[in-house]
Design brief:
Residues 130-181 form the RNA polymerase sigma factor 70 region 4 type domain. It comes from Actinoplanes philippinensis. The protein has 186 residues and is mainly α. It folds into 2 domains: 5-102, Orthogonal Bundle (Rna Polymerase Sigma Factor, Chain: A), CATH 1.10.1740; 118-185, Winged helix-like DNA-binding domain superfamily/Winged helix DNA-binding domain (Arc Repressor Mutant, subunit A). Helices cover 74% and strands 0% of the residues. The longest helix is centred in the N-terminal third of the chain and has 25 residues, at 45-69.
Length: 186
């Protein structure tokens, strides 16, 4: 059973004090969720495992910055999960950027399966039928750009690396998605 967000906050504050047992518990509580969310953005299991490991190494080293934001263990905003996801998402972009430098891009891009992300389901269920319907009608490549830029807060450059498309394509897809959403909601 998944621990509560409040428990994760408390564990992170204990990790900031060097508590190895709290770190191990935090890892057990959050790593399955984090790995699953990273797999929605990257199909390379080896790279996902590397990013998870790098994320928790960063958490061990930087938990003090989380604790400083949250002296009583009740961080503002998204709390522990949001903080962990921000670290992981940035590590994924960095790893993909590094991986892209190590090997040439294939001449032909293989098609990918489009699986609705948990964020899409949650967003569609909480923001109303009209917006949920408009999101569902967007082409998968437009939804992917919206998810990366709006829900995950990535820059155009980070989205480009994350999705493996040129920055100009990210910008044009974001514009097309905004226009499609505007039209669907008017």
């Amino acid at each position: 059973m998944r621990a509560s967000a409040q428990d994760d906050r408390r564990l992170l504050c204990r990790v900031a004090k060097g508590d190895l047992e709290a770190f191990e518990q935090l890892y057990r509580n959050t790593s399955p969720w984090l790995a699953m969310r990273l797999r929605l953005r990257c199909s390379d299991d080896g790279l996902v495992a590397e990013v998870v490991q790098d994320t928790y190494l960063t958490v061990w080293r930087a938990a003090g910055s989380f604790a400083a934001m949250s002296p009583r263990g009740d961080a503002p905003g998204n709390g522990a999960a949001g903080w962990l996801w921000t670290i992981a998402a940035r590590r994924l972009v960095d790893a993909q950027r590094k991986q892209g430098r190590r090997r040439e891009r294939p001449a032909e891009v293989l098609p990918t399966l489009s699986v609705p992300a948990a964020e899409d389901d949650a967003l569609a269920g909480t923001v109303g039928d009209e917006l949920g319907t408009a999101l569902a009608r967007l082409a998968p490549e437009l939804r992917a750009v919206l998810r990366a830029m709006v829900l995950d807060g990535h820059t155009v450059q980070e989205t480009s690396v994350l999705l493996g498309i040129p920055e100009g394509t990210v910008k044009s897809r974001a514009r097309r998605a905004r226009n499609a959403m505007r039209e669907a909601l008017s």
